[in-house]
């Protein structure tokens, strides 16, 4: 009878250095993304409700303007005056000729303030306006 030797192979080590590098890179990535998300956070606005509102599937190519209840214009978290807005819109339209303006107006904002912003948009060449509302739950 032939006795076979049992050859024990050494247990292979799992390379941990690449795994640690990957975890570190993911950590840095998520820290940067969360910081950038906070910087571009828009002003809290109490939008009006509408039964006919719907959320579009295509959200690219939009410039978001927010109007608080006093009629102050916000782009992201930055306040913009009525005199600064046309230059911002022209610059944005020069970068993207198909830019659509998404107007987020607080439900307490007077129509006179909304009308001023619409006139500024039209004078700057931004004709496509999307009004933001909450969808009424039925």
Structure report:
The chain is α/β, with parallel strands linked by helices. It has a domain at 60-135: Nucleotidyltransferase, domain 5 (2-Layer Sandwich). It has three helices and seven strands, in the order H-E-E-E-E-H-E-H-E-E. The strands form two sheets. Strands 4-3-2-5-6 form a five-stranded mixed beta sheet, covered by helices on one side. A hairpin with a 2-residue loop joins strand 3 (73-75) and strand 4 (78-80). Helix 2 (85-95) crosses helix 3 (111-124). It is elongated and about 100 Å long. It starts with 16 loop residues before the first helix and ends with a strand.
Total E-strand runs: 7
The CATH topology of the domain at 60-135 corresponds to Nucleotidyltransferase, domain 5
Strand-pairing-aware structural class: alpha/beta
CATH class of the domain at 60-135: Alpha Beta
Low-confidence stretches: none
- Separation of termini? 84 Å
Overall radius of gyration: 27 Å
Q: Note the beta-strand portion.
A: 15-25%
Shape: elongated
The main pleated sheet reads as: 5 strands, mixed
Averaged pLDDT = 82
Instruction: Order the strands across the largest sheet as they lie in space.
Output: 4-3-2-5-6
Q: What is the helix fraction of residues, given as a range?
A: 25-40%
SSE succession: HEEEEHEHEE
Which architecture of the domain at 60-135 would the CATH scheme give at its second level?
A: 2-Layer Sandwich
Q: Count of DSSP helices? A: 3
């Amino acid at each position: 009878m032939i006795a076979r030797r049992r050859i024990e192979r050494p247990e292979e080590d799992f390379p941990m250095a690449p795994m640690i590098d990957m975890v570190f890179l993911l950590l840095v990535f998520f820290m940067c993304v969360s910081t950038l998300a906070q910087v571009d956070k828009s002003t809290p606005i109490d939008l009006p409700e509408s039964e006919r509102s719907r959320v579009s599937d295509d959200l690219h190519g939009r410039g978001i303007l927010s109007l608080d209840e006093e009629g102050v214009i916000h782009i992201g978290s930055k306040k913009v005056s009525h005199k600064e807005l046309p230059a911002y819109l022209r610059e944005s339209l020069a970068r993207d000729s198909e830019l659509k303006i998404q107007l987020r107006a607080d439900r307490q904002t007077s129509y006179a303030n909304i009308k001023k912003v619409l006139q500024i948009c039209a004078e700057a060449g931004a004709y496509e306006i999307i009004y933001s509302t909450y969808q009424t739950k039925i």
